[in-house]
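The authors assume throughout that readers already know how a fold can be written as discrete tokens. In essence, backbone conformation is discretised, so a fold becomes a row of integers matching the chain in length. A single example would do more here than another paragraph of explanation. For illustration, here is how one protein appears when written out as sequence plus structure tokens:

…
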Amino acid sequence: MKRQFHSWLFLSMVLPGGALAGDLVYEPINPSFGGDPFNSSHLLGIAQAQNRFDDRVFTPIDPLDRFADDIERRVLSQAAREITDRIFGENPEESGDFTVGSTSISFERIGDDVRLTLADLDTGAETVLTIPAPQF
């Protein structure tokens, strides 16, 4: 029995068998890329169902509002640069206070850290940040 199994195994490995696989051919689904033209309405329906953009919600931005936002961003960026220079510049200060609009910014060095306190003057809300000071 064992000999018969080995001879059958040998013959199955030696004798050519029928191929069970064929060439792998890519067929596009989208009709825009050569796929079946009957898929177009199905694909369009799926795309419209996934489209969450609503034309009624979009409101164009007023150029004056955009200009005011740009100016505000630049002023805040310049203030941040000046504060950073006073904290980490060539001659760093031990403490300081700034006011930008309705926000008060104060800093002080505590050991190897810098403690920033941001306070909203309108609401009284405060945010405290502790930043490790770079060692040069």
